[in-house]
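If you are new to this repository, start here. Below is one unmodified record pulled from the training split, so you can see the exact layout before writing a loader.
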Amino acid sequence: MNLRLRTMTANGFPYNDDLRGRFTERLKNFDRRAHDGEGLKQAAVTMTLIDDGKGQAAFILTRRTPRLSSHAGQKALPGGRIDGGETAMQAGLRELSEEINLHLGEDAVMGLLDDYPTRSGYVITPMVIWAGAGAQYSANPDEVARIMPITLSDLMRPDSPEFETIPESDRPVLKIRFGDDHVHAPTAAVIYQFIEVVMRGRANIRVDHVEQAVFAWK
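And here is the target side for that same chain:
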């Protein structure tokens, strides 16, 4: 860990213009991989950065309601399917508005990470968003059971990420830990690449090889 990152981690990740500028520059210089999406449905997810209320940067994770037809009750980043005529950016911002009532324009999008194809038949385009000071949001109860802000400093820990082996695949299953909880790929794939590329500045980290937990294959 370089000196600047050690200092930042020790002090947390203050939600300020300096952090936004550094993260935006790293995304600007990132040579993202787009997937052709052939045979897959298109979706967008948002890694949305907010102030945790104490001046520290956090991102928004949600728990889906148990009533949804797919991936019910699972932890997820806000996002969903791209409708006809939409760009990934438009879809991500629309889903952010629909799921957690956070209404932002395209100027809030800092950049994109690699597309990630899922076992359930989607190719996900992840975008990193800066919500801004004083951002207001609330869960849409039809889609979101709970909003869980996770501080960025909670991602910098020695026991995460984890790469597990499973009999169903020769690819490693990725798990990211935070607090006393965790999440698997595909959500973990987006978070892991964000940690490495945006937070650590390691532009060569890819995630399309990592596997999902079996429960997320459908």
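Two things worth knowing about this chain: The mean pLDDT is 91. The radius of gyration is 16 Å.
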